[in-house]
UniProtKB/TrEMBL annotation:
Residue ranges constituting the Mur ligase N-terminal catalytic domain according to the UniProt record: 22-97
Broad EC category: ligase
Gene source species: Bacteroides oleiciplenus YIT 12058
Motif Meso-diaminopimelate recognition motif boundaries: 402-405
Gene: murE
Any single Gene Ontology cellular-component annotation: cytoplasm
Gene Ontology terms for molecular function: ATP binding; magnesium ion binding; UDP-N-acetylmuramoylalanyl-D-glutamate-2,6-diaminopimelate ligase activity
Binding positions (UDP-N-acetyl-alpha-D-muramoyl-L-alanyl-D-glutamate): S30, T153, T154, S180, Q186, R188
Alphabetical list of PANTHER family matching this protein: MUR LIGASE FAMILY MEMBER (PTHR23135), UDP-N-ACETYLMURAMOYL-L-ALANYL-D-GLUTAMATE--2,6-DIAMINOPIMELATE LIGASE MURE HOMOLOG, CHLOROPLASTIC (PTHR23135:SF4)
Name of the molecule in the record: UDP-N-acetylmuramoyl-L-alanyl-D-glutamate--2,6-diaminopimelate ligase
Keyword rRNA processing carried by entry: no
Biological function: Catalyzes the addition of meso-diaminopimelic acid to the nucleotide precursor UDP-N-acetylmuramoyl-L-alanyl-D-glutamate (UMAG) in the biosynthesis of bacterial cell-wall peptidoglycan.
Post-translational modification: Carboxylation is probably crucial for Mg(2+) binding and, consequently, for the gamma-phosphate positioning of ATP.
């Protein structure tokens, strides 16, 4: 593509050099640059792409997009100066990959909890209807039935547009995508056209990056502020921030709720460990999911599918066939008569939701044993809160390691224990080795009890000192059961 064509959606401050150069690729990582590429220098949280301009040119870049033009410029290279390279990168990538979101219906899901479940269940629902569908999520990306491994919840703009381009070329009609607060703040979704957006909820998370809950809220809200006029925004009325999210959007706003009058109204009629009987807009349906939070997630899926043109009755039939997402309230039955549940809950609110769901089914007829930790090098403020919530809603608590990353496991455990009072400590033990913690929980459990292993869900590794070691909570439970 000719450089002038590539720059049509941005307003550069200045261009030094020719815009008639042929561009064969676009990159933000200098290590991936090849001959004929445009290198785009971004200021990241770890490194500044401006420091790698010379390296990119050496590797064959013929043009450079940047905020600060280098003092020493190389002859024959075109320099494009922009005010905001984060914003420009997404728009340029969209143009280079032939504006993939103009050919597909892209729906984004944002919020603290429920993003993976809602995006994945929408993907499953529309595949049930016979469409080719794309999925961009924390667990895995899919181009219809082909899995594409993922590193981040929302990839960088180049990877994202490349992936969306492949989805469009493969004939995908719909794409469902988790939209993280990081990706909104870092403008990774700049240039994409959304057919709709879904807001789940907002609770404390990622404050290591956003610093305050208000900044975190603003990042999520910006997604809806930027939503086009012909799109829909579906928001959760049961969250106090539900209407805050959509107050400045140009899109058409719809609401869902398990408590209030709204466009998509739900109610739990019955609940047990095999699933729930629900009422959605005066239609009954049985599902294989458990817990109020899952009823809310399914309601969002129901609403979004209807807003994308499907009949309510057809969507209900599809929902009744769905299975829970890997690592989300994943129940395993022990031969000794107790139940173990693996869940990704890694925020105080998610932990409360899962424990409430367990109590909703148990109705006081068994004890709850919770195994929980917190990730290293992440928001430290949530550690004592998570321990407190676990203690509040459990009969026994085992504080253990999650992904320690570059912190000492015992330091993280101590941060969690600091949230507990004397009574909480009576029912709490700490075991740094997660395998031993799970084994101990199983030894403590009696028939009719429930063990919750929280925090890692679908993850099949434990990250320590920069190395990912294989570790899977569900595998560990099955090892104990079969031992």
């Amino acid at each position: 593509m000719v450089l002038s064509e590539l720059l049509k959606t941005i307003q550069p401050i200045q261009i030094i050099g020719s815009t008639e150069t042929e561009i064969t690729g676009v990159n933000i990582d200098s290590r991936l640059v090849q001959a004929g590429h445009l290198f785009m220098a971004m200021r990241g949280t770890q490194t500044d792409g401006h420091a790698y301009i010379a390296v990119a040119i050496e590797k064959g870049a013929v043009a450079v997009l940047c905020e600060d033009v280098p003092e020493e410029r190389k002859e024959g290279i075109t320099y494009i100066q922009v005010k905001d390279s984060e914003d420009a990168v997404g728009k340029v990538a969209t143009t280079f990959y032939d504006d993939p979101t103009s050919k597909i219906e892209l729906v984004g899901v944002t919020g603290t909890n429920g993003k993976t479940t809602i995006a994945t269940l929408l993907y499953d629902t529309f595949r049930y209807f016979g469409y080719k569908v794309g999925l961009i999520s924390t667990v895995c990306n899919y181009i219809d039935d082909k899995a594409v491994p993922t590193e981040h919840t929302t990839p960088d703009p180049i990877t994202l547009n490349q992936l969306l381009g492949q989805m469009a070329d493969s004939g995908c009609k719909y794409v469902f995508m988790e939209v993280s607060s990081h990706s909104i703040a870092q403008k990774r979704i700049s240039g994409l056209r959304f057919a709709g957006g879904i807001f789940t909820n907002l609770t404390r998370d990622h404050l290591d990056y956003h610093k305050t809950v208000e900044n975190y809220l603003k990042a999520k809200k910006k997604f809806f502020d930027d939503m086009p006029k012909n799109a829909f925004s579906l928001t959760n009325l049961d969250d106090k921030n539900g209407l805050v999210m959509t107050q400045n959007t140009r899109s058409k706003v719809y609401t869902y709720s398990l408590r209030s009058l709204c466009d998509f109204k739900g109610k739990i009629l019955e609940s047990h460990f095999e699933g729930m009987l629900l009422d959605f807009n005066n239609h009954e349906l049985a599902v294989r999911f458990i817990g109020r939070f899952n009823a809310s997630n399914l309601l969002a899926v129901f609403g979004a599918a209807v807003l994308l043109g499907k009949k309510e009755e057809d969507v209900l039939v599809a929902l009744s066939t769905l299975h829970p997402v890997a690592g989300r309230f994943d129940a395993v039955r022990s031969p000794k008569g107790y139940t173990a549940i693996v869940d990704y809950a890694h925020t105080p609110d998610a932990l409360i939701n899962v424990l409430n769901a367990i109590h909703g089914v148990l109705e006081g007829k068994g004890k709850v044993i919770t195994v929980v930790g917190a990730g290293g090098n992440r928001d430290k403020g949530k550690r004592p809160i998570m321990a407190k919530e676990a203690a509040k809603a459990s009969d026994r608590v085992i504080i253990t390691s999650d992904n320690p990353r570059f912190e000492e496991p015992q330091d993280i455990i101590n941060d969690m224990l600091a949230g507990l009072d004397k009574d909480d400590m009576q029912k709490t033990i700490s075991i740094a080795d997660r395998r031993e913690a799970i084994k101990t929980a199983c030894m403590l459990a009696q028939p009719g009890d429930v063990i919750l292993v929280a925090g890692k869900g679908h993850e099949n590794y434990q990250e320590t000192k920069g190395v990912k070691h294989h570790f899977d909570d569900k595998e560990e439970l099955n090892r104990v059961f079969n031992g």
